[in-house]
Amino acid sequence: MEAKIQKNVFGEDLEICSKLPLTGWYRDGCCNTDERDRGIHTVCAEVNDEFLIWCKEAGNDLITPHPNHGFPGLKSGDKWCVCASWFSRAIQAGKGCPIYLKRTHENTLKIISLETLKRFAKDLY
Question: Where do the domains of the chain lie, and which CATH numbers do they carry?
């Protein structure tokens, strides 16, 4: 069964976020989602140390590997499908990191406006 291609924040086909490390709710490299994804792992972020340290201090440790959950642990420069709610909190804390809009799922817009997302975009042009 072939999966339906989901859409990005521009209503276009969602592009791959990262294959190394392999990211995504489905671990397919894309920020695809479904109704079971309560965290809404839809923002393709290029994480940096400031974002990762803030997340860990705020209770979302993205640095420590958890191989039993298929999580390698992240380092600065990695691209990862982060939770839209956590990215929103990071923005409010002044810790937002660069993101890729063409790789960010349209469901993100339910939590963060496109105007706000554009402030962090690496792929606007």
Answer: 1-125 (3.30.56.110)
